[in-house]
Amino acid sequence: MNVPTEYIFALATIILIPIYYYYTKLHRIEKFFETFPTPTTVPILGNARDLRSSAALFKNLHAYVRNYGKMVHIKIGPIGHVLVCSDYKFIEFLLTSNKLLKKSFNFKLLEPWLGTGLATADGGVKWRAHRKLITTAFHFKILEQFVDVFESTGDILVQKLSKESGNQSVDVFPYLTRCTLDIICETAMGTKVDTQNSEASSYVQSVKTMCKIFLSRTMSILKRYDCIFRFTKDYEIQQKCLKILHGYTNNVIDSKRRELEEKRKDKKWRDVDDLGRRKKKVFLDLLLEGTVDGQSMSDKEIREEVDTFMFGGHDTTATAVSFILYCLANNKEVQDKVLEEQKELFGNEKNPKVTYSNIQEMKYLENVVKEGLRLYSPVPLFSRRIDQDVEYDGTIIPKGVGVLIFGHGIHMDPQYYPNPEKFDPSRFENLDGRYPFAFIPFSAGPRNCIGQKYAMLEIKCLLSKIVRNFELFPASPHHEMMLAVEIVLKSLTGVKISLKSR
């Protein structure tokens, strides 16, 4: 029987493409990883079973570092290879590079939600232009204006927590998530949403669900592929969450647009203050009024950046404050020093008029915050995709290698932090600055967190207010946190403490 030539050609193509891919790309990557230790694997799955849940991922990454060292090769499925790194020298090399800026493939799984905003963009022209525009939203003159919002929103938080005063155990995290969501909306978006006075927030719940789905897809050999994911229950759930999340941010954007249009119509409105100085624009103003390369940002681009900052600006901050409150509740000596510093600034006044300069004077509290960020890093993992052959320490790292920077791993390294399990803010009084890349809660280098000064200011403001109003104690019965990575570090058992009004 004569077989048509085109069929033979098609069959040969089907056979040869995988062979070509293996020897030109995958084979080089596999050869590179031969020099690194690999935890015990199982056929087909590799190390995927070790990473089957958010809690297992966090626990086993630390186990890999302890048992195999600071540069570990793990396999996910039959062809997935990742370098898990908590080595100082390599972290410095990677994070300071102006070329190796691409996030890992897994971040594409966030694009249905966050699009290609600053957090997920590949580090190209669009990313650089947007970052340059948005950076101006975090000028210290703008941050000064936000303190009043931090304070007023924090006052509502104190009212809510007062209802829990005297209870032996309260999970503070839900209170903080609603508070920080209100703060990000009013400061960066210029819109009040009053989430704290709602019984529940569908937005907050949808964020939580999307984080879980992202992690589930990341660790799954099959669900990471869209063609398979579309037929799963998680896909249906994701679509419902996206409707809520995008609906929420679209409402915020529309509200701000209407406000700006009304201001333009108002002949008395001026964009300068009483001294004739041009008013600083907040984040959403910049997006709506700004241009990139002479072009206004599209509605889609604006929503992507708003979605990114709505998520990053409330969830990570709420996580940080919750964990630090837990540390203070379980370390009375440190809590007493924080209170002493507050009294030096404000006497016994629980609700003073707090200014930007007051917050800058809270030096001990700043060390407390840094130690909390070290011990419970809100974003414990960063990823990069090596998108070009690059030389490191005499070795060529081939294009296609995926790197997982285990920031929490280096934060718990006794080489840089003796007795790393201990909550000890004094260690930040003695650091000499020789190892800046041993403390990376906000990442570092060109892709560092653009809002880190905003976050530090907000965290200090909320903590100082809570400590002035409440004495913190460990929860009763004893509360053990179960740490897990769901994009942001979380405790699956909540963050529980006891509060008593001062």
From TrEMBL:
GO terms for cellular component: endoplasmic reticulum membrane. Heme binds at residue 449. InterPro entries: Cyt_P450 (IPR001128), Cyt_P450_CS (IPR017972), Cyt_P450_E_grp-I (IPR002401), Cyt_P450_sf (IPR036396), Cytochrome_P450_Monoox (IPR050196). It is a peripheral membrane protein. One of its GO terms (molecular function) is oxidoreductase activity, acting on paired donors, with incorporation or reduction of molecular oxygen. Keywords: Endoplasmic reticulum, Heme, Iron, Membrane, Metal-binding, Microsome, Monooxygenase, Oxidoreductase, Transmembrane, Transmembrane helix. The chain crosses the membrane at residues 6-23. The keyword Oxidoreductase applies. It is found in: Endoplasmic reticulum membrane; Microsome membrane. Its cofactor is heme. It comes from the Eukaryota. Belongs to the cytochrome P450 family. PANTHER family: CYTOCHROME P450 4AE1-RELATED (PTHR24291:SF187), CYTOCHROME P450 FAMILY 4 (PTHR24291). This is Cytochrome P450 monooxygenase CYP4BN28.
